[in-house]
């Protein structure tokens, strides 16, 4: 299991990219808050668990293009309060984009995803030929 997280607090983004490259998959983020991702390899599949509390399942976009799985989200919120001579307007914008290069051993046509309790869970099944073979006894003649 691997946890991939990046926070650009000390160096600017360019310096961080030069001296600390992300070997687990590309990332793009405009506001510095990337959700943490657990990557779990089981016998039959890979499971990506992305921590994104406060989102709705409609906020996510998951794409597969040429063995690259991309998970992204964009959320905009606005609120406005008017009182007598005072108007207050607040808004926020949150977005992230994570990309993962999948191995040739996965079946991209059977990928599925669920979102529950702040965790986006993406299951990437392995191809039949990549699954472990059961132990077989060989008779001696």
Descriptive keywords:
141 residues, mainly beta, four-stranded antiparallel sheet, 5% helix
Radius of gyration: 21 Å
How many helical elements? 1
- Strand runs, count: 9
The portion of residues assigned to helices is under 10%
What is the overall silhouette?
Answer: rod-shaped
Tell me about the largest β-sheet. Answer: 5 strands, antiparallel
Which stretches of 5+ consecutive residues score pLDDT under 50?
Answer: 1-31
- Our count of domains comes out at 1
> How far apart are the first and last residues' alpha carbons, in Å?
44 Å
The CATH architecture can be given as Sandwich
Mean pLDDT across every amino acid position: 78
CATH top level is Mainly Beta
What spatial order of strands do you see in the largest sheet? 1-3-4-9-8
Question: What string, H for helix and E for strand, traces the elements in order?
Answer: EHEEEEEEEE
The CATH topology label is: Immunoglobulin-like
Structural class: mainly beta
Strand content: over 45%
Could you walk me through the main structural features you see in this protein, from its secondary elements to its overall organization?
Residues 28-141 form the SHSP domain. Belongs to the small heat shock protein (HSP20) family. It comes from Croceitalea rosinachiae. The protein is mainly β. It has a single domain (2-128), classed as Immunoglobulin-like (Sandwich). 5% of the residues lie in helices and 48% in strands. The chain is built from 1 helix and 9 strands. It has one helix spanning 13-19, and strands at 2-4, 27-28, 37-41, 45-51, 60-65, 68-83, 86-101, 112-116, 119-125. The strands form 2 sheets. Strands 1-3-4-9-8 form a 5-stranded antiparallel β-sheet, with no helix packed on it. A hairpin with a 2-residue loop joins strand 5 and strand 6. The longest helix has 7 residues, at 13-19. Mean pLDDT is 78; it is low at 1-31.
């Amino acid at each position: 299991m691997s946890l991939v997280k990046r926070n650009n607090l000390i160096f600017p983004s360019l310096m961080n990219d030069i001296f600390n490259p992300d070997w687990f998959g590309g990332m793009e983020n405009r506001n510095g808050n990337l959700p943490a991702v657990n990557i779990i390899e089981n016998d039959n599949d890979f499971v990506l668990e992305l921590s994104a509390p406060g989102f709705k399942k409609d906020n996510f976009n998951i794409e597969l293009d040429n063995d690259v799985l991309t998970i992204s989200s964009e959320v905009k919120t606005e609120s406005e309060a008017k009182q007598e001579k005072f108007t207050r307007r607040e808004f926020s914008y949150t977005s992230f984009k994570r990309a993962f290069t999948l191995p040739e051993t996965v079946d991209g046509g059977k990928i599925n995803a669920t979102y529950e309790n702040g965790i986006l869970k993406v299951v990437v099944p392995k191809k039949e030929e990549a699954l472990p073979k059961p132990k077989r006894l060989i008779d001696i003649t």
